[in-house]
Write a structure and sequence with these properties.
Helix content is about 10%, strand content about 25%. It is mainly beta. Among the domains are: about 180 residues, Sandwich (Jelly Rolls); about 100 residues, no CATH class. Strand 28 and strand 29 form a beta hairpin. It is rod-shaped and about 200 Å long.
């Protein structure tokens, strides 16, 4: 504390009342000054407050700076010439050299003033050193000393009486600056402190400015902190005032306390000297040297490389590094492959099949079923034309779906009817073709003609009476009775002989006929059984009966046995006109073919025509 000063503490600062005895210099003396609203025509300019003269504090003394009357604000400043350390400020106000008490008219003009320290002429850009809020007309002194431990280039005095504002009792109606002397005490040279301004400020003080009393720094140079700026920035801070935060240095290391650069590079997701730049699009990892997987949609996480917005079609996995598999493809592997050959994996992006389609499908993706009429791998095969519906077969196997065309068989209708069959579904039996050959598989015709004893396109008709041999092209011998012979061998069934004279030979032949009848009965039974089987196989009996009935002009042959007591002939059988003997059906009036028989010579005379 300076000797000769009486300290007074109040709201707004510390002031000293009384004479000042100090080793600090008045650094405002004869420096450039300026005031708002100068009083024109009078020698009351702003420089009067720093000329060092204040013995006559009246307007007429010419030693005071006075502004014009009737103003709502008053402002005055002095420029110190450079940034200097300030200790205190002393103000000598106008008294007009009369008693300074509440009756003095100038006390009300002094009330409510402020003092600012700034590096510019604008008080708003500086620091408030003092503002009067407590003085009254009876308490405010005419000389005030204010402690103001700041640095600055400008010291600004300000007062106001703004319209619409309410001020305490005793305040003047208008604002005034009536400064007879304005003294600023401090060190005339920057970078020193102490009573004699002989102690250098700590080297890390900002601009080597320190508290003029104790040497504590008013601010530190970049990268340092503490009252005397002896500590480097830490705790992930750097820069001026340690107010900047380090970037993402590798493994969370402390950055350089001055520049903020990271000694071992950047941690994942950051780049740049200070590691405070995020990785650009498409990069990740430490110092952003890693490239995001190109299959990521919308880039990747700059720290981890994870594809946060999913993958492009055809890819999956955290980093979109895995192609779609499991017979899937497309966006999010959400589409299923078609029927590729051997059910192989399709192209992971577009779903095309590398080696073509499996059976039953076609197209790039093998999702199109074979069109009508085609089947197999890639639908390259055509349905068999012999299918029941030539354009309808199983699209995979080619199996005909509606059976086969007439004359064909097997699942694909690839085989002709065989084994004596022809027609639709090979359900019809061939006739008696030459050498028992297979008939035509479609219409049943015999390609090389008929075997012996049969005729017709399909060789199902037996030879007519009087014909025999292949295709019934040969005629029976004229020696045969009624030219009737065996249709197969051509042998006569009965031999033609002259009619014998009418004699009664019953006693002679009675016994012989009886024996012959027994033999004939056995022969006829055998012949009937064989002929029935043959007739069923050929399905021709009905046609034969029709033919027999239509040729009614042909003579009938009867065999008689004279066994009755009256010597009359008894009718035994009616012999058919072709190759056999017939037995009459009682219910239909027809005749059953019994078989081919030959009579012994002794009975030939008993065969008669009618």
């Amino acid at each position: 504390m300076n000797e000769g000063l009486v300290p007074v503490y109040f709201l707004g600062g510390l002031i000293f009342i009384g004479n000042v005895s100090s080793a600090y210099e008045n650094i405002a003396l004869e420096k450039h000054a300026w005031q708002l609203h100068p009083y024109t025509g009078q020698a009351w300019g702003a420089d009067k407050a720093v000329d060092g003269r204040y013995s006559d504090r009246s307007a007429g003394g010419g030693q005071c700076a006075i502004n014009a009357n009737y103003k709502i604000n008053a402002e005055w400043w002095v420029y110190l010439g450079q940034l200097l350390s300030i200790h205190h400020i002393t103000i000598y106000y106008r008294t007009d050299n009369v008693v300074w008490d509440e009756t003095n008219g100038y006390t009300s003009r002094f009330l409510g003033f402020s003092v600012y320290i700034s590096n510019t002429t604008k008080k708003e850009e500086g620091r408030l050193c003092f503002k009067d809020t407590n003085y009254t007309k009876s308490t405010i002194p005419d000389m005030i000393t204010i402690e103001c431990l700041f640095h600055g280039r400008y010291v600004i005095y300000y007062n106001e009486r703004l319209s619409g504002s309410t001020y305490p009792n005793g305040y003047s109606m208008f604002a005034h600056n009536e400064l007879c002397e304005f003294q600023v005490y401090g060190c005339p040279v920057s970078g020193f402190y102490g009573k004699n301004c002989s102690l250098p400020c700590p080297q890390n003080c900002q601009e080597r400015h320190c508290n003029i009393v104790d040497g504590t720094c008013l601010g530190c140079i970049t990268g340092y902190k503490g009252s005397r700026c002896e500590e480097q920035c830490d705790n992930n801070k750097y820069g001026l005032g340690c107010n900047l935060t380090c970037g993402n240095c590798s493994n969370g290391e402390q950055c350089n306390h001055v520049s903020g650069s990271c000694p071992n590079g950047c941690d994942a997701g950051a780049q740049g000297d200070t590691c405070n730049e995020g990785c650009p699009f498409g990069r990740h990892g430490k110092n952003c040297v890693e490239v995001c997987n190109p299959n990521c949609k919308g880039g990747c996480n700059r720290f981890t490389g994870v594809c946060e917005y999913g993958c492009y079609p055809g890819w999956k996995g955290t980093f979109c590094e895995i192609e779609c598999d499991g017979r899937a493809f497309g966006q999010d592997c959400g589409q299923s492959c078609g029927s590729c050959l051997n059910l192989e994996q399709c192209h992971h992006i577009n779903g095309t099949c590398f080696f073509g389609c499996d059976r039953g499908y076609q197209g790039e993706k093998c999702i199109e079923e074979c069109p009508d009429g085609r089947y197999g791998y890639n639908c390259l095969e055509m349905c068999n034309i012999n299918c029941g519906d030539p354009i309808r077969c199983d699209r995979k196997t080619g199996q005909c779906q509606n059976g086969c065309q007439t004359g064909w068989k097997d699942t694909k209708c690839e085989k002709e009817c065989d084994l004596g069959k022809f027609g639709l579904n090979c359900a019809q039996s061939c006739g008696v073709c030459y050498e028992k050959e297979q008939c035509h598989h479609i219409n049943g015709t015999c390609l090389n003609g008929c075997d012996k004893g049969y005729q017709g396109i399909n060789c199902t008709q037996e030879c007519r009476l009087g014909f025999h041999g292949y295709g019934c092209n040969e005629t029976c011998s004229t020696d045969c009775f009624n030219k009737t012979c065996d249709a197969t061998t051509g042998e006569c069934l009965l031999i033609q002989t002259p009619d014998p004279p009418e004699i009664n030979i019953a006693p002679i032949i009675g016994g012989g006929v009886a024996a012959t009848i027994v033999s004939l009965t056995v022969v006829i039974f055998v012949i009937v059984v064989r002929r029935k089987k043959e007739s069923k196989r050929r399905n021709s009996q009905e046609k034969i009966d029709t033919q027999l009935s239509s040729e009614h002009a042909t003579p009938n042959i009867y065999i008689y046995d004279n066994i009755d007591e009256n010597g009359e002939y008894q009718e035994l059988r009616k012999v058919g006109r072709r190759t056999g003997m017939c037995d009459k059906f009682e219910d239909k009036g027809g005749y059953e073919e019994l078989g081919q028989i030959k009579l012994p010579p002794r009975y030939k005379s008993h065969v008669h025509k009618y």
